[in-house]
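I hope you will forgive my troubling you with a question about protein structure. You will find the record immediately after this paragraph.
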Amino acid sequence: MFGGSIGNLVEWYDWFVYASFATYFAGAFFPKGNDTAQLLNTAGIFAVGFFMRPVGGWLLGRFADRRGRKAALTLTVSLMSASALLIAIAPTYGQVGYFGAGVLLVARLLQGLSVGGEYAASATYLTEASRPGGRGFVSSFQYVSMTMGQLIGLGLQIVLQHTMSDDALHSYGWRIPFIVGAVGAAVVFWLRRNLLETEIYAEEDARQDQERGTIAELLRHRKEAALVIALTMGGTVAYYTYTTYLTKYLSNTAGMSKSDASLVSFCALFLFMLLQPLAGSLSDRIGRRPLLITFGFGSMLGTVPIMTALSHADTFTGALLLSLAALVIVTGYTSINAVVKAELFPTHVRALGVALPYALANALFGGTAEYVALWFKKGGVESGYYWYVSACAAVSLIVYLTMRETRDAALSRDRADGPAAPGKQRTTAV
């Protein structure tokens, strides 16, 4: 669990630091003007990073299926270190005009490439390294590490807010977390070099199958790939709404100070992180579908009232309770979505099967969530975004209600889909 998730922590620390510090560096790369317009520009670059994720999902997913999970995990964290360093040293608009924004864009493209492969490599590694009957619990640590990375980023932001002036943060202080991210990724690179490959992949690797990790092989599992996109749609929109966008929403809409909004997000995410293993373990007992269905109904029916109430939250306690209520609902998706996707595919195409469809769904829905929210706000109909989130959840709910249970799916099988040999496992089709 440690080896598979520690790099994920650094990956998502860098990924979310961009979002949480955007309010400070938005003016550094674009001309002075409307604050919302500057945030739209930085959110647009944030979204562009998501559109690089399918490319990363394809290239690094194929790499993980052909060269191994360990090799892919090491490569992804190397790319993330480089991207964090680029942002840390990027020149401002006042120094070189829009060239600085260009450097920011290149860094985001590298981050998108890296995260596009990291999710699948981590999901497959954690799932394949788990004992039968405990995959939900172990794989839930993927979102523990993702959330911990964001918490470290938010925690650093809170410390900087209380130790530096607002002018200093806008001038140069925002570069500090990216320097920390670059150094942290270099440390994780060294740690990941000592990881052991999973036994399931090692057995598959012995076959030297030339079809491993190919698009042609993935197309033979196109129903599963389509299922990954559909079940991800509602979850990714809700997740990014209540994590990366929450701080901006509390600041720009509810009128909370940036420091109070950051503290609300930190406390809510900390409790959210603790829920992941509990929910993952529960799915090992009762199955994956009950949790997904609970999320679907909760997000579809609860988003509008929760977001409306958050827009009027004027106390720390009220905002925290509402944020936590939303994240409890989202836990039904986040705690098990990685293992569900990994359980859909056989070993020789598992990483690519998880990576590419998931990255496509995130590019279309997760990466654009913040931009769509700000677009509705700029148009004066911010409540329209609440209904958008509910609609995405409704689509995914249909999938949760109609899909088959994956908890007992085996992780290896014969290519002919024949009866499993004694001592062998066979994947259950969904």
Q: What stands out?
A: The chain has a mean pLDDT of 83. The longest helix spans residues 99-128.
